[in-house]
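Reviewers asked in the last cycle whether our approach scales beyond single polypeptides. To address this, we selected a multi-component target totalling 543 residues and predicted its structure end to end. The input consisted of the following lines:
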Amino acid sequence: MDETVATEALDRWIRSFALLVAENKDLLTDLDAAIGDGDHGTNMDRGMRAVVAALDDTQPGVPSALFNKVGITLVSTVGGASGPLFGTFFLRAGASLGETTEISLAQLAAALRAGLEGIVTRGKAEAGDKTMYDALAPAVDALDSAISEGRDKADALKLAVDAAESGRDATTPMLARKGRASYLGERSVGHQDPGATTVALLMAAATRASL
Amino acid sequence: MKKLINDPQDVVAEALQGIEAAHPDLRVDHQHKIIYRGDAPRPQKVGIISGGGSGHEPLHGGFVGLGMLDAACAGEVFTSPVPDQMLAATKLVDGGAGVLHVVKNYTGDVLNFDMAAEMAAATGAEVLSVITDDDVAVQDSTWTAGRRGVGVTVLLEKIAGAAAEQGRTLEQVADVARQVNANGRSMGLALSSCTIPAAGKPTFDLGDNEMELGVGIHGEPGRQRVPLATAREIAEMLVEPVLADLPFTHSDNVIAFVNGLGGTPLIELYVMYNEVNRILNHHGIQVARSLVGSYITSLEMAGTSVTLLKVDDELLSLWDAPVKTPALRWGA
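The resulting structure, written as structure tokens, was:
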């Protein structure tokens, strides 16, 4: 079994994520309207369309360049809090990788960990704040554990998706402490976080694209 | 959705074309969605830029001109602009004396302006940022994203703009701006929701006999939902928390700003102003200047916000200094 991840596979992952965002645009916007300002789906869809256009334009040769391109494009096109946060995630992930054309699953996990740390630095989110962190951190943790248990790539990614989806679902009873949802106080309880929902789509796209 | 638009996707771009056509003193960078002064950059004058989501007009683009902002970045409706825009605006207005970024305290605005300031610093530009966070409706600042920047932003852009026009240094202009934010407080109330063009339906539902007390400028909920009340009662609900917060006390001089949120007629704002003025008189607070009108809005939301700014002679003289922008103009 091939346990490496090629640039082409990562390209498929990003395009698959763009499709999932487009398919779920209204859901993301509705979730955001309930506890934010109702633009998350529109903004992420605009950003991911721009990412796909940028990848169509020039195909990056290495994973680091691909992540860098995704990050720069998201920062430049999404706006709101999601632009800097998702953008920083990919920029930091890219910066953590060397110039190799293929990376190991462990290198991918380390890149996602670097991206997660970038989000924490920029957004100051902590576990339980009802943000994208609450889906992303469990997913990255699950990937790390799966790798250390010697699971194969498909199994490891599946565990990461499950963890992201559980993390997403766990945001529903949380009280928001960051972003616009935090102004709702108790009224934010009972709503699923849109950012965490998008993270779950990002992880689901990884298995769809058979990384 | 009933709106005077062509296509929801084109609202911001077409509004910028309209602003450019209507105001020959201004220029528009359509690629970066920046409104800027035709005479920018002014040599050795501190440049002041702001920006934020669209839908709050005339904030910020309507405040570009002599004595106020040098440039304003327009984001999508209710969505912060992106760092590329702020970086481009910073370069457009940097006349060698540095650039002040005026940032309303919303997570998206703060994160994007942070990235822009880092990028500008990397190119050698001198940038300082001042954040407005005057909304007293947000009571819990520790466990939220903090108080929101609302009405004080308008007063700050006017006063800091005058300071920059006088040739003060970047540090001095930033100090004046911080003084305004520190001495200003606001609170708002919504009578109706608003509809983001791209969303096509109202952001929240508000019953015929309900009001949202302490609403933000994007339809974020406030302190509580309360039954519909009279202008007199509403003025009490807004002014008393503002007064108690700073606190404003007997014989303080203030600028009293009664703002419309976009869908409330001026006649109602004057009814509100009358009530606000009565409460201030009752407390022995001196209204040195007033501003009544829709200056920081939330699309077509009906409602109002009240901002009080405690002023000394210096802030007052900066307030009175000439200004010539699409939305505010006097003395010029």
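The interface with chain A takes residues 53, 75-84, 106-108, 111-112, 114-115, 138, 140, 143-145, 148, 196, 198-199, 203-204, 216, 218-222 of chain B (CB under 8 Å). We regard this as preliminary and will revisit it once experimental data from Aim 1 are available.
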